[in-house]
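Inputs:
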Amino acid sequence: MSNSVRNLSLFALMALLFMTVGFVQSWDVSLTLLNMCIISAIMALGVNIQWGYAGLFNVGTMGFAALGGLAAMLVSVPPVAGAWQAGGAGIFGGLVAALLTVAAGVYAWRRTLHLGRRRYWLTGLVVLLGYVVMRAIIDPAVEAIEAVDVTTSGFLGGLGMPIILSWLVGGLFAAGAAWVVGKISLGLRSDYLAIATLGISEIIIYFLKFEDWLTRGVKNVTGLPRPVPYEVDLKQSPVFQSWAGGLDMSIDTAASITVKLCYAGLFSVVLLVVLYLSEVALRSPWGRMMRAIRDNETAAAAMGKNVTRRHLQVFILGSAVVGVAGAMLTTLDGQFSPPTYQPLRFTFLIWVMVIIGGSGNNWGAVLGGFIIWFFWIEAEPIGLWLMGALTSGMAPDHWLRLHLIESAAHMRLLTMGLVLLLVLRFAPRGLIPEVKR
Amino acid sequence: MSDVLNALVILANFVIVPGLAYGSQLALGALGVTLVYAVLRFSNFAHGETMAIGTMFVILATWGLQSAGIGFGPLPTALLALPVGIFAAIILCLVTDRLVYRYYRRQKASGVIYLIVSVGVMFVYNGLIRFVIGPRDQVFADGQRFIMKAREFKQMTGLNEGLAIKTTQAVTVVTAIVTVAAVFWFLNRTRTGKSMRAFSDNEDLALLSGINPDRVVMIAWIMTAALATIAGTLYGLDKSFKPFVYLQLLLPIFAAAIVGGVGNPIGAIAGGFVIAFSELFVTFAYKRVVTYLAPESMAPDTLVQFLSTDYKFAVSFVILVIVLLVRPTGIFSGKSL
């Protein structure tokens, strides 16, 4: 069986799985799964750009996805006029002060080379002073903003623009964060990037959780505007009613399925664009250079390639793709809630997708995204059923039975870990291996 | 004069005593990370979960002891259960090495592969913990709660401010000192310890001199498992056992190891205390201290806090960033194990 036939049949199998869910559970569930699968596939593409093309280990996918989510919220929510009046100037002044502080710190550091040890103290003092000034400007503003209509807003709001725009902005946000992290940690030992990304993603989440003036924190921002029609409007439109009447389903189901199909269409366009661009990049001289750097950094450096710069570039590109996917996810959810960002779900699951799909192969990453998300969701009913079947011989209130059934939900963590280890060990090239060019 | 003393007591109560305890916990954790790095040459992302799983074994053993009616007087029963937990963690680490890491060692896999593999191990450990003990909090500290209560201190000294020392804090510091002393005695005085240092310094030379690499790796895992279990248990006694927290501890622990220079045990300990004290000093609200020290008219009306406690993990990240920017090899560079 040739490779392309094999790959095609893998994707066909995936389609079959969706059909099965559609017939057994419902088409609604199947489409929900499909939409999440597409988003996961885009995230996996982003990580694949970093890991598969360049061998960079990013443990901070969660943070970049969350920045995308932040962008979705900030772009789409209408501005809160009262909050802007109360503290807009203060926040703006604080941001300027922060920028000036960073600039002054860098300036002090660069210009004091001759001072020896005192250089550390001087720079530290400059930054500390700047920080105190910034806090003095920003603190009253934050307090004022958070006091405006606490129950409904208490934050600055956003720009009130179409949420689709945020997909680009999310990519930019993530790219900016990636630039900072990459600038600091690339060019050092490879572990440092991993540790730095682990750190930055945690801090981004903490920032989103606790800076209420920007994100409402744990109070969440709900009811983000949609890029697609609402079910309620669909149900009331006569055109839709007459169209849905011809179908063999209730109007509620028809409306909900139509909305999900619209999302699926939008997401597929993004997926195809990202996939196309990644493939073109991989086949271009640039892709060849990246592979050369990944396989032998020393040789590539000897050929005059600036390894650190290229790493920075590819790290930013990959993170931007993850940011786009993060913005899409928040769009689909219709709400921005920082506590839902969990490293296991947003970082490690994406890694499992890339490794299992086949690192270095974009189609592999897409397939991995589909398969892993599918089973991540479907594992719960399967696991519950399995535990129930295994313990069916015991008394219904036996402690072990209760414990096992209660823990079934945690089984998928264990399973994902085992799957990752097994694939790395026995099939490190994944389901769709990288093509040797 | 008494104002100055009062201010000092506040600092001691809220920063210095907790800092010593937290620093000891981080130092032991970072020592484990550094050992794995020195001998196996990778950053072990599963270390946080190793701490958690070791602590879980200790908790299970503690429950066993408690239900058998065995206690440890004023000290927490968990100290008696510690050897059991360490033993279980050692078995787990050795099994993991045999099943997972050994293959990549034979393959001479690149460092980044080890990182991913350790992430996979972390996943599996995390799943095991949730499967066995569940994701909820467990408080397993028993015995006497305080060595010195704030009220007793006030009566003793006649100051306005009290100084409380929890039993778990004292236990943490003492256990950490004993453990670190044992580790250094082992590394510097015993033959096996010296062979480990030789192996970490120059693998090829060590192999030429007839050092058995499998033995060195085995001992490194044994020590790592023991250190992780001790660190995790002390942290769990001091705060409470939450399976999620150990994942978040990973960042301060890595930061501590890197600040001190990865692969350097003294650096790991120094790094642990640097991180712990920076975290506490930066997130401490100095309002009451300043109120005592400054003249009455200048009493502050804000908290005088540099950073809200919500961001305590950001402190270790900032320190990490500064070290990476200024001195990527760490404070104690140029010397390993």
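Chain B touches chain A through 48 residues (CB under 8 Å). Flag for discussion at group meeting.
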